[in-house]
Amino acid sequence: MKEPRRTGGLLENWDPENTEQWDNGGSAIARRNLIWSVAAEHIGFSVWSLWSVMVLFMPADVYGLTTGDKFLIGATATLTGALLRFPYTMATTRFGGRNWTVFSAFVLLIPVSATLWILAHPGMPLWVYLVCAASTGLGGGNFASSMTNINAFYPQRLKGWALGLNAGGGNLGVPAVQLIGLLLVAWIGDAAPYWVCAVYLVLLTVAGIGAALQMDNLTIPGVDMRAMRRAVANRNTWIIAALYIATFGSFIGYSFAFGQVLAGYFRDHGDNPSQAALHAAQIAFVGPLLGSISRVYGGKLADRIGGSRVTLGVFLGMIAGAGILVAGNGSLVFYIVGFVVLFVLSGMGNGSVYKMIPSVFEAAAQSKGFATVQERADYSRSLTGAVIGIAGAIGGLGGVGINLVLRQSYLSSGSATSAFVVFAVVYVAAAVITWSVYLRVPRADRPVPVGAGSGAPASASERLG
Questions:
Q1: What separation in angstroms does the CA of 364 have from each of 299, 376, 383?
Q2: What is the DSSP code (8-state) at residue 313?
Q3: What is the mean predicted confidence (pLDDT) over 10-29?
Q4: Domain count, the chain
Q5: Alpha-carbon distance values, 32 to 4, 63, 201, 309, 366 (Å)
Q6: Is the pLDDT of residue 449 over 50?
């Protein structure tokens, strides 16, 4: 057995599928990289969702922004964060996982500093806020590079747990920034919310230095343009991406929108803008917090019973969650219950859909007839990494849709009810796709892969399609 050798941040002879290597120090190496990957991704998510907090404390008479403008700011940040996931997916192969994590942490100092300055000087035209929000989207790109990197550190049997933990820890950056914003407002008042940015300038510096000292670059093959072309040509890539639109798109879209929906409710029921923002902030963080935690358990459950089974159950539950919002017709209790259901289930769905990716493409690798186990592992790893990036990027676009549909609903009717109907229809379509492609009785021309390496039954749950 070749021992992993670390030289100047470069880790050689890494083979997580080698159980002897894994049991004799390999798991500790993977855990160390996972911890700092989660830390950097967590802070990146916070920066990405920074404007979801800032807009709550930007009264119209001071900043000149309407509710529609604020939804547009959220959509802009979500859009750039989603699109940047494409290049970020290949960045760890080109520059190394450690090197890119360090860079992606330090580069976020720029948009955070810009946000601090802009909020301290109210009255800017809308395009300035949009450009600044777009630049915070760099934090959204961190997800793809982090997930692709961690995918290479863990064996197939533990990928659902590891990817779920990595992503869930990153997702926790959304409620974290909302909580930090709430605490600072309670401490210094709501007239200077930009002090949240000062906190994140410190945290980004710590994450960058920690990644430089503790993480590793790998020498094994990763995601490159060849893997991307293979992924683009595989129909499972686009099916999984569509499912991720409904799960992660819902999570990140609602994370930006939930606080604004609540603030609008409180304004309509007599609060002044400052009171409405504070009351909304006291509630809004709960949804993203529960959704982030549930992602880990969604991945873990998918390791046991199969990603597609969990995903179908998630979509059925999300249909019910959207139905609660429609039936509530503007009731605060229904708002809170409906959104919490959607956050928890979308978080679980994020974990289960991402578990489907390595399962599907491990099966694809087995069907190729590679001469050696290493060739098969390299093929599966590179294709999985590519699809993680593609699905993550396209899934993020769902968050853009959430904010734009809500914006249009408010503009046309003054409420969000019609938007909730649209979301319910999307979840019905996602459930049908999941069942018809991955769960119904397989036809003879659809090969059934072996299990995901975690003891889960093979059945038809993650077949090649």
A1: 21, 9, 9
A2: H
A3: 87
A4: 1
A5: 14, 44, 23, 31, 30
A6: no
